[in-house]
Every structure is written in C-alpha cells, then in structure tokens.
Amino acid sequence: MIIDGTRIEPETxxxxxxxxxxxxxxGIVVALELxxxxxxxxxxxxxxxxxxxxxxSLSDAGELNPDLxxxxxxxxxxxxxxxxxxxxxxxxxxxxxxxxxxxxxxxARWPVSYDELTPYFQRACYWLVCxxxxxxxxxxxLLPRTIVPNFPEGDVQTTSLERWSLPTNFGKEYLQRFxxxxxxxxxxxxxCTEIVCGSDGDRIDHLKCKTLAAKSVIVRAxxxxxxxxGLDTTRLLLASSRPNGQPVGNHSDxxxxxxxxxxxxxxxxVHFSTPPRETVYDYVKDIDGVYVRHRxxxxxxxxxxxxxxxxxxxxxxxxxxxxxxxxxxxxxAYLVLSSPLGRLFSPDAQRLSLTGAKVPGAPxxxxxDHGSLRDHLFNVLRDPASTGRFIAGFGGQLLLRRxxxxxxxxxxxxxxxxxxxxxxxxxxxxESRVTLTDIRDSLGMPRLAIDLRFSAQDFEGVxxxxxxxxxxxxxxxxxxxxxxxxxxxxxxxxxxxxxFHQIGTTRMSARPEDGVVDQDLAVHGISNLFVASSSTFxxxxxxNSTFMIIVFAVRLAEHLRTLLRPRRVTPASAVIARPRE
Length: 581
What we know:
With about 575 residues, this protein is of the alpha/beta class. About 25% of the residues lie in helices and about 20% in strands. It is built from 17 helices and 18 strands. The longest helix has 21 residues.
C-alpha cells in the first residue's frame, strides 16, 4: 500500500510492528523482508516516486569544503529508491581482510566476521539483481580467469570480480510490491524530524514526522529502523535527545565521527607485455546475463605483511573530456554527455566528472583543457569505425533501455596501455566528522557541518600499493606501470574527495564505549532502535558500500524477525487520510 503523506490528517498517529525511516535500498529491503514474514511495516519516505528539488534541498549541508566533499544534491537522493535512483550499479562485497584486526589501518575491531556475513550474499544478490554471489573468477570456469592470459596469481591478483546490477532502481523495481502489499505501508512525502525516547531513555517511544508543509504526524511501533542514508541518519540521531539531554546514540562521543569515503583516481598507466587482443579490458557478461569486470588486487597476507590499506584497481579509459585521446568513441560520448541530452544518459555526478568538471570523490576530472568542439568532432570523423560500433552497441542499449544494460564503455588499446583507476581504503580518522550547525532547513532541522578529512597515510597508502603492483609486473615480466606525475602523493591528494560513500559515523562495536551500534545494529543502550546504513561500517575497505548495505539489511530483517511477533492489524484503519477531492 502506498499512501501520500500530504493527505494524512494533521496529528494522526500511525502504528505498526516496525517503522523504517527511508525508502532507499536498505529501507526497502528491510521493509519487504519483514512484510514477507507477516509483520506490519510502516516505511516513511521524505520524497515521493518522482524527484522534488524542494524535498531534496532538505539534505543540503550547512557547511562543507567544496574541494573535498561533493554537494549533497548530487551525492544523495530523497526519493523512493534513494541513492539507487542515481547509482551506477557496482556490486562488490568487503573482503575477508577488512574484518581482520589491522593496527596499521585502525585500532577498531569489527564485532562481526566475514564468515558471519557470507550466508547473506545470495539474498543480497537477489535484491540487487546481480546474479549469483561469485566475486572471484577462480570460482568459475565460465569467465576469463585473469585480466591477461596466464597471469601468475600471487601477492598481486587479477581474478577479483565486481558484479553490476541492471542497474536496479529500487524505487521502480519494487514499487508494485508496495502497491500490492497489505502488510507494508509506504508513506511518501513524510520526513522524520525527531526520535523521541521514553522516560527511561532505553527505548524509543515514537517518531515525530512532518510533511513539507509542516503538518505533524506521529509514528509508533515496537521497533524502529533508521535507513535514511549515512549522513542523514547521523543527522537525525544528533538532532534527537535522550532524557538526559544527550543526543541519541552519542553515549561515547563516537556519533558523527570517523567519517570515511574512498580514495580514487588515476596516477599511472599500466602497460602489459602480453598480446593486446587478449587483454580483458571491458565488461564481460556471465552465465546469469549479468556484467562483471576484473580488477587488480593485493593478497590478504601480503596486505598484512606490507601494512597496506585495502585497495583495488581496474583498467579505465583516458579522460573523456581531453580530445588528445584521439578516440572517436570517447569524443562522441563527450559530445553527448556535455550536451543538453547528457542528463538523460548519466547521473549528474558521473556526467559532470566525465565531461571535465571537478567533482570531489569522482575518479575523473578536472580537465583544464577540454580542447575545442572542433577537436572532438575531428576525432569522431577520423575514427568512423569505432564511433559507429560505439553508437550501435552502447548507445543502442541506452536508447532501447535493454536489460541488463552494459554499465559503461571502454575502448581497447592497440599498445596494451591503459589508465589504471584505483579505488582504495580511507583510513579512519576520529576528527573526520559531522556536527550540527545553527542553520536550519525548511522543517526546522539543523543542517550538518561536514568536516571530511584525509591524511598523509591515505596518500602514502595509494602510492605504496602502486609501487607493489609495478614491482610485481616487472618481476614476473608481465608489464609495468608508467607514472603520470612526479610527485605521486601530491597527485593523490589533489584528486581525493568524498561524499558518495558515507561510512563510519554510527560505527558498530562490541562495547558501548567503542561505538554507536552493536553487532546487531541496535543503538547501544536503546533496545528497539536500529541503524541500516553504511554509517555503521567500522572501516571503508576497497568496496563501494551498496552491496554490504544490503547484506546487513537482510541480516537485520532476520534478526528483527526473531525478536518480534507479527501482530494482526488492519493497515487501512491505522491511517486517517483526507478524502480525495
């Protein structure tokens, strides 16, 4: 059932077994998993099925460094589907090494193990529509095993795979389930503005919510799940108080701290000495009809031995905006993306970075010299064969909306030389944090001050990983790296930024004094409040957050199922709505 929150009568009280705040991927999964087990779920979403700039602006930060952090307007989405409306579709889990105790990365420990989470991988793949949970080419005979033939797997490995969702916009993919369900009520246009504790402070009594027109609604349940994105979840906790005046979840001064993203960019090209035609540089479709891509990684034991952060890399394109690549396909892509039609083909963050703009946290851009329109047109005309293949292949898929859709485009290199795009761990820093400002949004909630910080350890880790890759390629005779800058650490520092992967600000811990939530994602000291978000992750690893968010969401739904008994309630009777006129 989908209910327009703007049509609910003022001061109405909604009730359910479980209330979930936020209809992004995590919230949708928790809600539908529980509804499927007979629980009455109320799912609150600030936005609606379509985009609203007025609603989206509620997430805007009060303060941030625009050179280090992307605007919240392009990093988040207040809409049914959440960030899945604007994501690329990459699905990859954390690695076993991420859950190891690694004092060179952090003195914090995950309260869960990798082996505890793997049983939920298949279910996560189901929700993400990304095939089976095969993330290593060594586990199957149906894909090329390595990026180049006969690559000697050792300290450096190339069997690691990332899987790609269709991409799955959760808002569209699962909307009909909400329409058909009698167990879950999706309330759109309703924003949670405060979490209200009971008199003892150890349980949540209710949530205060408002429509954009400031109409108040109360929501009560046995359990509450916050799934409104990493920073907005943290903001809601900071803006809500326990009876002692302390922000909800800030019992040990960890709330809002340890904010992480990832380090990504290009500081080197990789040249392989193997036959160019045999290099797996592009996406490959697997037996499930899902696209996968090979990546270069470092072995678990080697990371410990060398005290390296977790980092991966893959073969990439030259900067699309720079016509010196001389590729007709890339220039055609640039012309389309930089035209008024570009918004139809790519989310804003990706489109802007690919066309040369500076977007903190994006692997491409800024490009100072875009060349002239004539330069790009000349590339298209001088390279008609590859341009035609690109238009017929990738372009045709986009226009025809075929699924699964190829996630992106890559051009092969006749010299077997490719930009090596890295995606690495952001080492936790206590002073990398978010706090509340005195600036308020249109509903009266204080906006965030975002102080994302990186350190020399982050820059140095990226460079040392590249040194190891280069050394291994040279020792085995399979190639080399060709560095693009003299001062590599400075190049990493100039590229680095974040905002798209919002990690760490409600970190999980075994002990209350070490974090915000426990191993079951319950806020320490509050038995019926849970967080389903990447903000609970202790470290950032090499993986973007989406896959593990869904893994933890499925696990949380299972945990709630064991805690609660579904009650029998007539959902329609729990809402008093204004009659349609």
